Structure formats: structure tokens, C-alpha cells
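During the second year of the project, the team shifted from modelling isolated chains to modelling whole assemblies. The rationale, set out in the original proposal, was that interfaces cannot be judged from single-chain predictions alone. As a representative example for this report, we include one of the complexes processed in the last quarter. Its constituent sequences, exactly as entered into the pipeline, are reproduced here:
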Amino acid sequence: MAHVEVTAPPYRTIPIIPALEPGAMAGTKSFLANEKIQNDLGFPGTLVENWKDVALDKMRELLGRQRSLQVFLDSCVHCGACTDKCHYFLGTRDPLNMPVARQDLMRSVYRRYFTVAGRVFPKLVGARDLTRETLDQWYSYYYQCSECRRCSVFCPYGIDTAEITMAGREILDAVGYGQKYTNEIIGKVHRVGNNLGLPEAALADTLQGLEEDVLAETGVPVRYPLNEKGAEVLLITPSADFFAEPHVESLIGYGKVFHAAGVSWTLASFASEAANFGMFIGSYEQLRKIALRIRETALELGVKRIIVGECGHAWRVAYSFWNTLVGIGAGATDPYAVEFQKMLDPKVKQPTHICEYTWDLIQRGALRFDKEANDHRIITFHDSCNVARGSGMGDTPYGQFEIPRNIIRSVANHFYDMAPETINERTFCCGGGAASSPTICSTCASRGRCRAWRRCSRWSTSTASISWRPSARFARRSSRRFCRTTSSR
Amino acid sequence: MIVFPFSKLLHAPGVFFSPTRNQRNNPREHRHLSPWAARMEVER
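Output from the structure prediction step:
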């Protein structure tokens, strides 16, 4: 590769507190969901006539159902610890993107209608009415939060702005003011089984292609099974692993790990999505409906173990919520979850992250690596926000920081961590979460690479990560098949 | 005239009641199900 002269701006110490620019992002709005997308999820198609009553009713319901929401709205003392921690504020300089201000958009309305002080002397306690302008502000700013919870790490009370963002989005959906990106994708999962709308034939074709490629490259007949009954392990992985680069390299790697471990495993087309966009819009009903596909598939295939592929949000939902949603875990008392937990192996953690599984194999000496083959690489690790702050791994606290790093150190000699205030629980969000970058697909330069991608581009499919493109393998093999067999329109 | 944040001072002990820091990290071991969520568990 030719030597290129690069001029970079001078290095500055993170975080850099920007000068405020009020209203910088006030006009920014994600694309609105149309009637069909909204109705598919049971939400009103457009903004309803009595939106104020519906919104306040929904808020009342959420405050009653989720004690955390009321606590977080009540306990903020405006100390300002969170302000310079949010990457949206640091990047946009809009003061309403400070976590405290984002919460105050809802807190002011909560105080006005649900507290005595707010009802009696609103101006004194910073309470305000729920007007159309406020609703528009909510739509603008609650979709500028990627629910990464970095603010919560520094808050003395541990107030989780993501909970408030999720509640805000639930209220907006309830009045028919939904975002196209998330709601369309949730509809796709219900119809097809995964975020990208990849039908079973496309998945089978991709996996067959991977088997051929791996055999050609390594000479080892690694299998990538789909819907195989009686397999021991069910791998639930983000659908991007079938479609995008570099994600498809992960899927190839998972197959090699299972092959080396000698365990029978399978993917499933009915539950071909680990990510759960129901969490982004805060809707427990949508979260549960998507997660139920996994229980149904696992019961049908009769697996003993569920392993989750690498995806930050997927792992947060899998680790923190799958047990509550559908009983993947232990300690259930209701009949359906008990039946499910009886089928799964109680000696291992359910679900298991692929990193936990891989690290366990490495520690037992089941996987052998040639570390020198990676000597030309200098590697760092960007902690995924949802993994770092919203979940755990392994048996020890902070396992989610150590296990991935241990795996990298086992395969490479040159691993270096980034600045201390940007790693572990202080990691900066990649910006891809909570559907706050819905314009990713329209700016994705790689749409021209694949005919299928061009055709499906109006679906705005993207699991929005740091610069990915449709896998060349997928484009080569499946584009024609994909266009013929795709049925979700 | 000095403005002293009495409200902040009186809320300070609240840091010990933080729900995010006082909850146990055992979602895989124990099925946390609130009553309204339990009412949804009516089918296989």
C-alpha cells in the first residue's frame, strides 16, 4: 500500500465541552411512519384528534406500571454531572441534548399533570403544558438519544435517561406519532422473522454459500445448519450477520468455533434476529412478541442451549430481559416458562453470549490459535454501550469488559486499550443504537454494490453500525434469488 | 444575598437509594416478573 500523507487535527483531551448552540437540532426530525407501518404494530396511523388525552393516559399508565420511570422523573436535582457526557450533546452543542434537558422535556409535563406543585403553581416548579410544540420537541429529541446510558454512569442517582426516552417514544407511538425506521423494522420482524426482511430461502442460500467458501478457503467442511431439529445449540444472531460486511465474518467465525468444539448447532429462520427493536420504542408488548419467536423456535427444535451472536442491543435484551419476557433463563414459577426452562440445560447460563462460550473453550484449550498471524495488526476494542452498561458476561462483575479483551489477547499480540475515559463503562456509543441514525441507509455509499440492496433500499434496512456494507458474498450469490423470493411489501 | 441550593442538599442522601445501583445483577438466574407482565403469560 502506498504511503499516504495524512494531516489530522491536533489531539485534544476528551471530553471537549462545546460552546452551547441553542436550537441547533430543533428542526431535526426522523422520517415519520406511515399508516400501514403504524397499524401493523397496533398503533394509530396518524396523529389522533385527542392526542393530548391519549398521551396523558399513556403517561399515567407508564408511571403506574414502571416504578423506575416515576423515580427517575422525581429524583433529578439538576446537578449537571450528566451534561458533558452525552455524545449527542458533545457533537451537536444543542443544550436540549444534555441528558438532564432531555429528561426535563418529559419532567416538565409530568410535573404539570401528575404532581400537586405542578398543578397549583406550575411556573414556580418548571412545569409546562403538553402542547403541540412540546410533542414535536419530544419527537425531535427523543429520537436523538441512542439509549446508550452513558449519562447514567455519571449521574449520582443513576437516573437512566434511556428509560425516559423509551417512555417518550411509547407515548409518541400511542398518539400515532411514530418513527418510520424502528416501526417498519419491527413490522418486518413480525412478518418475515428478522430486521432485514431476509426470507428463509435467502438465509439458506447465504449459508450454503458460506459453507462452500469456508471449504474452499480452509479445506475444512464447516457446516452452517438452518432449522435443524434436535441440535444441541440454537444460535440467535443479528440478521446483519447474514448480510453485511464485516458482520458475515462473525458468522463464519461462529461456525468455526462450533466445529472446533464438536457441538451440534443450528440457526433458525423463524427466529433469525437477535436484535429486538421493541426495546428502542420501549414497548413491552413488542419486545415480548419478538422474543416469543425464540421460545417457539427453541421448543420446536428441541434445543438444549441458546447462544446469542454478537450484537450490543441484542445482548442487552437477551441478558436483561429474555428471562422476564419469555423465560429463557432460570427461576421461573409460571407454567409456560417452567416448561421451557425444563427443556433447556440448567447447568449452563441461558442465554450464553458467544464470547462467553468462546472464552470458555479457549480456557479449556479446545481452540488453538496462531497469534503471530495477527502480528501485522494493531487492535483495540470499542466496548459496545449496551454490553458495557446494560448487561454482564461470565460469573464475575465486569466480565463484559474482560472476556472480549481476553479473547482478543488470546488471538493477537498487539492489543491496546483506548483512553481510560472512553473504555469500559465510560465507552462512547457508536451512534447506531435506538434507531437514532435512520438516515444511515440513505447515505450508505455501498447501495450500488448489490442489486438486491438497491431494490430493498426503500425498506430503509439497516442495523446502523460503524461503516458496513452488504457482504460481497451475499451479493454474488443471493441477489437474484433474493429479488425473486422476497415477499414482504 | 446568597442563593444556596437547599433542595440539592436535602436530596443528597438520595444517592444511596439509587435503583440502578441497588438492584441485584441476576436477570438470568431469577425471573423478574411484575404483576402486569405476569397477566400476559396466558399462552405457550
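Confidence is low (pLDDT under 50) at residues 439-468, 478-489 of chain A. The interface with chain B takes residues 65, 67-68, 71, 75, 77-79, 152, 156-160, 284-285, 288, 299, 319-321, 323-324, 327, 329-334, 336-337, 339, 349-351, 392, 397 of chain A (CB under 8 Å).
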